[in-house]
Amino acid sequence: MAYVNPAGEFTRDQRYIATRITADGRDGYPVEAGRYRLVVSRACPWANRAIIVRRLLGLEDALSMGIAGPTHDERSWTFDLDPGGRDPVLGIERLRDAFLTRYPDYDKGITVPAIVDVPTGKVVTNDFAQITIDLSLEWTGFHRDGAPQLYPSALREQIDEVNAVVFADVNNGVYRAGFAGTQEAYDKAYNRLFARLDWLSERLAKQRYLAGEQITEADVRLFTTLVRFDAVYHGHFKCNREKLAEMPVLWAYARDLFQTPGFGDTIDFTHIKRHYYEVHRDINPSGVVPSGPDLSGWLTPHDRDSLGGRPFGDGTPPPPLSPAEQVPAEHAAR
To answer: CB–CB of 138/168 below 8 Å?
Structure first.
């Protein structure tokens, strides 16, 4: 598979399945406990958002989760972590099977996160940006007691504004640098990325979270890029002006979130590194996965609580992960 655009700038295919699962079922898929399965890979930053939001909101009992392996080929993500190489609920070997069950001629990206309707085996949506918003706003009947408001109406405009620039320049910006096919395209993406990281540093020097006093959807979206920065983006994608660990404000902010229940306990650094270094063979032809970086820094004091704020607003932290969803200890920061 080729990811680098030899003509220059990388452009992400954003043709996602826009069907929504809503409380009123207006798209034909009403919110129902036990009906749907969230398919993710711990390697993927876009899927990692859904993992975090599901956990923070306490939706584990209402929305089951299937975990694909860290690598894939041109035919899609596989369930190679499961016995027999099949998802135990959906009974399929590849995520593409759920897409083709709904759309036999499907010709767009088969991506995670995706939500599958278990009774029919058909994919419902892979619109990653809308999935997490709907988990917050449409699935409220199944939120745990003490679930935080990740997309509160009073902060929504501010969250949307931050999300728009962070997506363009940071979340997608690292890919625009990594998959650039010309020096000009790379330089443009690199400069946009670090200009936005500087902007974020200035913003977060004055407040604990992106929208002020509490964790919101905006923090989830930025975190999943920051947590991968030194492990893959700095070297693999040539985003190397500085490591995250050399940007004091963002490093402290990322550690604050990492040490918050629901964030760091979802991170599988082994899967993250294997995905990028093994799958992107046009960037890393050997497929060799680096041994570093040292992960112990993620657990060091961050002192961000001196800025005040309440991580969960009027809510409470999520309970400990169930054993079935814990990241293997050897894959985590320690």
So the answer is: no
Which residues does the annotation mark as catalytic? 44, 175
Residue 134, number of CB atoms within 10 A of its CB? 20
Q: Where are the alpha helices (DSSP H) in the chain?
A: 45-57, 96-102, 128-137, 156-166, 173-178, 183-204, 217-228, 234-236, 248-258, 269-279
- Strand, coil or helix: 157: helix
Is residue 1 scored above 80 in pLDDT?
no
Q: Rounded to two decimals, what is the model's pTM?
A: 0.98
How far out from the chain centre does Cα 169 lie?
16
* Angle at CA of residue 104, ends 102 and 108, nearest 5°: 85
- What φ, ψ does residue 195 adopt, rounded to 5°? -65, -40
Share of the chain above pLDDT 90, in %: 95
- Reply yes or no on whether the pLDDT at 73 is more than 90: no
Residue with tokens 């999943």: 224
pLDDT (tens digit, 9 = 90+) per residue, 14-48?
A: 889 999 999 999 999 999 999 999 999 999 999 99
What is the per-residue pLDDT across 226-245, written as a single tens digit (0 to 9) for each?
999 999 999 999 999 999 99
pLDDT confidence bin for 69, thresholds 50/70/90: very high
Rounded distance between C-alpha atoms, residue 199 and residue 244, angstroms = 14
**Cα 200 → chain centroid:** 19
Please give the Cα distance from 32 to 265 (Å, whole number). Answer: 27
Q: Which two tokens stand for residue 277?
A: 């270094």
**Dist. CA 284–CA 236, nearest whole Å:** 8
Structure tokens at 19: 């069907």
With tokens 């990028």, the residue in question is 276
Question: What is the per-residue pLDDT across 271-302, written as a single tens digit (0 to 9) for each?
Answer: 999 999 999 999 999 999 999 999 999 999 99
Going by the DSSP 8-state scheme, the letter that residue 154 receives in this structure is G
From residue 27, alpha-carbon distances to 20, 22, 40, 122 in Å are 6, 8, 22, 14
